[in-house]
Amino acid sequence: MFNVKRLRCFVGHLAFWLPWIVALILWHIPSSISATYYTHAGAVFMIILGACSVFLMFYDGYDKTDDILNTIAGIFGLLICLFPCGYDAERVGTFQTPVAISAAIHNTSAVVFFLILAYVSLFQFTKSDGNMTEKKKKRNVIYRACGVGMIASFAILLLPYFRIQVWLTEMFALSFFGISWLTKANAYKWLFAD
């Protein structure tokens, strides 16, 4: 049986550090984290995102809604892995899908993945058993900021194009996701544990 707090810490750390791990392996910041699929950092990208996705699918949440939302997010996370982003090839990925179809599934899955995680941070993590302590109120501020931050990260894509635009979007969204889950795990006991 999984230790829920340990699982939350694991998922939070994996999400937070993924952009930096792939950049370190490549020795540069890639145009996007997803594009590392086609590099020697691809296996690490797949393992980390795949592990996060599987753990989300088996995560015991606050209630049945939390369980369902995290399971769906996990499924979309796996779809991100199975259907790579666009590349200069006719067919890509596990199923050798035509590149345009794979890219469409990949991009849609990424957006849905982050929207669900933002919803969980905004509306599921902020629930309480009725005992709203001062520290719980502080944690709720963090959850809400992280949920809004995940969604707001996509505004970077509205800027004029620059090389690491998508990487920055993914990095900020994953950082907010990671901080939200680390807060939920009481990883910062000295600050937020009741």
Explain how this protein is built.
By secondary structure, the protein is mainly alpha-helical. Helices cover 66% and strands 2% of the residues. The protein has one domain. The chain has helices spanning 4-26, 42-58, 64-82, 99-124, 134-152, 165-184, 189-192; strands spanning 91-92, 97-98. A two-stranded antiparallel ribbon has the order 1-2. Helix 1 runs antiparallel to helix 2 (42-58), helix 2 runs antiparallel to helix 3 and helix 3 packs antiparallel against helix 4 (99-124). It is globular. The protein starts with a helix and ends with a helix.
- Estimate the helix proportion, in percent: 55-70%
Strand content: under 5%
Largest sheet: 2 strands, antiparallel
Please report the distance between the alpha carbons of the first and last residues: 25 Å
Strands, total number: 2
- C-alpha-based Rg, rounded: 17 Å
Multimeric state of these chains?
single chain
Unreliable stretches covering 5 or more consecutive residues: none
Overall geometry comes to globular
Number of structural units classed as domains? 1
Order of helices and strands: HHHEEHHHH
Tally of helical segments: 7
